[in-house]
Amino acid sequence: MCCKLPSPLRFSATLDKWRRYNLIMCGITGCFVASAPVSAGWLEEQALASMDELRHRGPDDGGTWVDAGAGLALGHRRLSVIDLSTQGHQPMVSADNRFVIAFNGEIYNFRALRTELETDGATFRGHSDTEVLLASIVRWGLVRTLQRVNGMLSLALWDCRERTLHLARDRFGQKPLYYGWADGALVFGSELSALRRFPTFSGNIDRDSIALLLRHSNIPAPYTIYHNCWKLMPGTVLSIDIAAIERRALPAPTIYWSTAEVARDSLSKPLMISSDNAVDALESLLRDAVGACMVSDAPIGAFLSGGIDSSTIVALMQAQSPEPVRTFSIGFTESMYNEAGYAAKIARHLGTDHTELYVTPGDAQAVIPDLPQIYDEPFADSSQIPTHLVSRLAREHVTVSLSGDGGDELFGGYNRYTWSRNLMLVINMLPPRVRRWAVRHALEVAPDRLDRIYTKLATVIPNSRKEFRFGEKLHKLAEVFDARTKEEMYWRLVSQWKNPMDALLGDYEPPTLLSRQTEWPVVPNFTQQMMLLDTLVYLPDDILVKLDRASMAVSLESRVPFLDHRVFEFAWSLPGSLKIRKGQGKWILRKVLERHVPPTLFDRPKMGFGVPIGDWLRGSLREWAEDLLSPDALKQGGYFRAEVVQKVWQSHLAGNRDQQYRLWPVLMFQSWVRGLR
């Protein structure tokens, strides 16, 4: 028998160590040293040290597993949601003793899989989804199991017979997984902080990745902020044997789910049904996806912003719950950013048990010093602030919360999907000289003044078609108005800095899918292409990172029903007219919601989940920003061209331009790197 559990005595001692460390983490960690002469005690010590860095990810259970002969250690901490008993303890060894798993996530269809496995003769000790996942791997193999499960996950699986470590991540990247070299050892974990604790991890900053941060407000997978360290791509498996560790040469990850291929396959088999039948089918499918996400042995609730996506999720939750669903909203004193009133009205209509918290600018700003620790590497989507605040509010009452993320990408919710085609028609009609003139003059008017002008002129526009923060959006449009192609237009729309290297002391911006336009997925039209690219890049690298870190920082598990792969396949089989109709996105989703909530409660401009960072930087955050953006601070470390960043800063302070989207990535990097010192 090549694998065995720790002795009861050793296991008890390990638990005592965790109690002393006061660990609270839900995640995985480990190292693979291969043939280096190391003891079991040393390996366990490294696993415990890494887990100590992940203390914020869950309070309920923990364990290590060591194979000293292979130089492998696995560590796990657990936020108990399914099977609260000790039978769900990890790392877990398979019944045949071949596999050992450390698993982070939830398998929503584990009960159906368990029934199928029991029919084939499998027996189970407990009721956890981890045990079912492990039994499925024994029965069908890892790749086939990953293709069959419905859920979110990152995992480390040790095959004792083949002496091979497998790292895997879910289809859409809901759960994170990092890996990298620490001298001759491979280290991996749910967060970079776990890797940093390994004694030989260099922690050398990858200067090239800073360019990606300035462009995208995040560092897209597979890159990280460190050299020789990567994010595992969604929908892939990385298999590493002892020989690969000895050669220090990792193989390429294997794709078990291709979002682009599944989307194209669904497009090739369009649904030929009426609009009413399509709405029926979507409601049924979403109801099932939401119901699957409601399976929990711990208290559960939902985020409710009052927008279409979160309102639909909550409506379908309440339709399946005999008790009022717990819902949570954050409100702001700044009316332009406050949706709490809309959320409260929807909550009253649906009969949920609603909790809202109005936060002051001071409350929101108090979160900012914690952001570098929460996000582990520089991350600069400012909606990270309210996302953390609403997660903290929810955690006071529940352990699990459902989210409406993913609806925009699937059903055409972002503004660029509705106006990009018309914008390109205008661009192509106008001579370049005229376009340059229009750009120059549009940018000469401050966003606040544009908002005031728009408010006076928009009285005749239907409420649902009005634009939120018009001035800011017009400035963004002006920056893409001289684009020569629709691809260049999209590239600029998703870029915060048009040319990041202008602000950096370096000469290289690493390639990504978005920069390699020849590799963009080929689909029938450009709107579909933007939606698919957003699903491949923006969703996993921004939206899901924001959600996971903000919620797990307070030991709250977030679930995303829209990312049920069956919903994805269905959405991509629908004709575009059921998503975007008469210049308005999410048509079919609106029709589902109308069955539960009157349109008057949600028919309004899309607001997003933002905070007035631009105003704060000119006001209460100015002193903090001045410190980080001073010429001396910018020159320290040799990362930035101080004169370029200072020019942007002064432009923002003068009110000439809203430069928050350029400044926030710089500020988040500066704050993060200062925390390392």
Q: Provide the low-confidence segments as ranges.
A: 1-25, 51-59
Strand order of the largest sheet: 2-3-1-9-8-10
Coarse shape:
globular
Q: Structural class, please?
A: alpha+beta
What's the total number of strands?
17
Q: Which second-level CATH architecture of the largest domain applies?
A: 4-Layer Sandwich
Keywords:
6-stranded antiparallel sheet, 677 residues, Rossmann fold, alpha+beta, 29 helices, Glutamine Phosphoribosylpyrophosphate, subunit 1, domain 1, single chain, 3 domains
Protein described:
The chain is α+β, with helices and mostly antiparallel strands. The protein folds into 3 domains: 18-257, Glutamine Phosphoribosylpyrophosphate, subunit 1, domain 1 (4-Layer Sandwich); 260-411 and 533-601, Rossmann fold; 612-677, no CATH class. The protein has a 6-stranded antiparallel sheet. Strands 4-5-6-7-11-12 form a 6-stranded antiparallel sheet. α9 crosses α23, α17 (415-429) packs across α21 (486-493) and α28 packs across α29. It is globular and about 70 Å long.
